[in-house]
Design a protein that fits this description.
- The chain is about 85% helix and about 0% strand.
- It is mainly α.
- The protein has one domain.
- α1 packs antiparallel against α2, α3 packs antiparallel against α4 and α4 runs antiparallel to α5.
- The longest helix is centred in the N-terminal third of the chain and has 27 residues.
- The radius of gyration is 16 Å and the shape is globular.
């Protein structure tokens, strides 16, 4: 998940470099989303899990988390560009699943400030999901 996050940060920079001069309407949104949500959040989640858990993380849940995170973000981006808020909603549901897995993977971790901060960040991401869904529907007159 960390490597995928780094790729998204770089991709976000490339999108910003190309969409600005081409004056593409949703280019700056796409660049910001790729960098902040797809990239930075992925890296932060992966790094925090590795630090907080302190043992080998089972591959199955990590793969599922990474796959749902990637598919959810892809659906949000596609739904935004195609102006299909229900696709954004489907992506949002996958993101909630990924965040739930991220939260569950830290069960048993030593309770401390780092764990509290990590879980608070997951909650902030989770709260931002329905806000993004609402905005997608408002933008497309679907509310």
């Amino acid at each position: 998940m960390f490597t995928g996050g780094v790729v998204c940060v770089v991709l976000g920079g490339v999108v910003a470099a190309f969409t600005g001069p081409l004056d593409l309407a949703k280019g700056s949104w796409a660049a910001a989303y790729l960098v902040l949500v797809c990239g930075t959040a992925s890296c932060a989640i992966a790094a925090a899990q590795a630090r907080l858990i302190g043992r080998a993380i089972p591959a199955g849940p990590v793969r599922t988390q990474a796959a749902t995170w990637a598919a959810g973000n892809a659906a949000v981006i596609v739904g935004t560009f195609t102006e299909l808020p229900l696709v954004v909603d489907a992506g949002a549901a996958l993101l909630v699943v990924a965040l739930g897995i991220a939260f569950a993977l830290t069960r048993g971790a030593a309770l401390g400030l780092a764990l509290r901060a990590y879980r608070a960040a997951l909650i902030v991401l989770g709260v931002s999901i329905p806000i993004g869904m609402l905005l997608a529907h408002l933008r497309n007159g679907a509310v």
